[in-house]
Amino acid sequence: RRVHGDGAIEFSRPLRNLAMLAELHPFHQFFTFPLLLTQTIFWGLSALCAAIDFHLLRTGTLQKFKIQSDAVISVSQYQQTAWYVLKRHIFTTVPTTALFAVAQIRIGCPDFSQPVPSPQEWISDAIVFLLIEEFLFYHVHRLFHHPSLYPSVHKLHHEWKAPVAVSSLYATAIEHAFTNLIPIGVGPLVMRSHILVTTVWMCIAITNSVISHSGFPLTTGKHDLHHKNFNVNFGVLGLFDRLYGTAGKVAVD
Asked: Could you tell me if 130 and 197 are in contact, meaning their C-beta atoms sit under 8 angstroms apart?
């Protein structure tokens, strides 16, 4: 920012944008803005990956660029998955995000009218977010692989043996809420995080989910191995996979 001779403060463009967001009703700051931003990222990245998938499919070079060299894409399955995910967002993502937004407001999480967090706050919040997500995602995900739960809760997600970007959120309502949404939302509540930190965290989380399901060698390929073999790589970071001996050792080909 710059302070003029008359005492007026001129903010840089990013801070002016935050000041504009601060004028919104708190519910729109904690719910509407993060939801629209994350949805834009999810559908934008999914559409980009889909365009690449269909181009490679037309040119007959799909397997050359996929982590799983025997990957097969069904156009009809792709379309059905995208339509299902859209409905899942409407009926699960929206209400769950709204509940988290209300909770953040109730416990006094700072909104965009409050000062931008210090670097120390960003780092400490990020560490807690990652650890909570890893703990919850691993254990709930592995629970959903139990024979009594897998057919009704998690089998749908594994219809894609070689996943694609949009299939990252191809899940039943229970799975989507307890593996995709709650592990990401609990950290900001525990830390009472600034909405800016929470929004950035949500954007990073959805980006990672889409990319790790894209089937392209943009990551280590660990999640592709999970979809192929089912019994390895249940976590996000791999901390509990190493602890419990479920880390996949064989490269996907």
From this structure: no
Cβ contact 163:85 at 8 Å: no
Please work out, in degrees rounded to the nearest 5, the angle formed at the alpha carbon of residue 190 by the alpha carbons of 196 and 111: 30
Sign of CA dihedral 205, 210, 215, 216: negative
**Distance in Å from the first CA to the final CA of the chain:** 52
**23 CB-near residues (< 8 Å, 6+ apart):** none
CA separation for the pair 216, 194 (Å, rounded): 34
Show the tokens assigned to 84. Answer: 């299902």
pTM over 0.70: yes
DSSP β-bridge partners for residue 10? 2
Which residue in 33, 246, 250, 27 sits closest to 142, CA to CA?
246
CB 73 within 8 A of CB 53: yes
Q: Per residue in 105-138, pLDDT tens?
A: 999 999 999 999 999 999 999 999 999 999 999 9
**Helix intervals (H) in 89-118:** 94-106
